[in-house]
Amino acid sequence: MTFKDWLIAQGKSPKTIQNYTGPIDGRLKDLAMHFDQGDFSLGDIKTSAAFAVICQKFDPTKEILQLNTHGKDMYRRALVMYAEYRQGSQNEAATMQDDFLQSVKEALQDSAEQRRDRLANAPKKPSKKTVRTVVFNRNPDVVAEVLLRAKGKCEDCKQPAPFNRKSDNSPYLEVHHCLPLANGGEDTVRNAIALCPNCHREKHFG
Questions:
Q1: pTM (2 decimals)?
Q2: Separation between Cα atoms, residue 66 and residue 59, nearest integer Å
């Protein structure tokens, strides 16, 4: 969901939406980026004084402060609304991840036949949901099948998992798509591999 769509869902008027999205897409764009990177929090922009501190730190020209005063605190309020939108999006993404991990846990408890029956009829390309960025609705059966196939060993370096999960004491391995989903890869057992955290990071950043 975009910032504009979120504001519409909040019942804001077209004029108010323009007053908020305009600054975020324009003069507040750099400050919004700093917020996304965790350089300050929602609480840091709740008051005019706190907003001034942020502006002086990340926009030393003081232009934004002058515009905010002229606009009767509109820039500060726009950044507050953006911060609330971002926090909501992050919470939604975290909830989706928790739900997915629970689905994987349930898939691991099913029989191989049950998983394979579902896999045979499952779409190879996952559906998508836009939170702030695109999140793939991954198939938990793929993760379960790959983890069981690995039998507790990294399928790259062949070493045992470095530790066990606190939640269920299972070997900690991460499922990696050989051809990334973002690049058109399939969410299938054939396109996935179980890796230790070190090998997984190497695949992405090595």
A1: 0.48
A2: 12
The answer to whether residues 149 and 194 touch, using CB atoms and an 8 Å cutoff, is yes
Residue 189 CA to its chain's centroid (Å): 23
Name the residue among 48, 129, 132 with its Cα closest to residue 84.
132
- Which among 122, 90, 131 is positioned nearest to 190, based on CA atoms? 122
Question: Is 88 within 8 Å of 6 (Cβ atoms)?
Answer: yes
Nearest to 193 by CA among 147, 127, 157: 147
Which residues make beta-bridge pairs with 171? 164
Reduced to 3 states, what is the DSSP secondary structure of residue 60? coil
- Tell me the chain's radius of gyration from C-alpha atoms: 22
Written as tens digits, the pLDDT of the chain (206 aa) is 788 888 888 888 999 999 999 999 999 999 998 988 888 888 899 999 999 999 988 888 788 998 899 989 999 999 999 988 887 766 566 667 777 888 998 999 999 999 999 999 999 998 877 655 555 678 999 999 999 999 999 999 999 999 998 888 999 999 999 998 877 889 999 999 999 999 999 998 78
Joined tokens for residue 50: 């706190």
Domains in the chain: ranges and CATH: 3-91 (no CATH), 137-205 (3.40.1800)
Burial class of residue 76, CB neighbours in 10 A (0-12, 13-18, 19+): buried
Q: Which two tokens stand for residue 155?
A: 């399928």
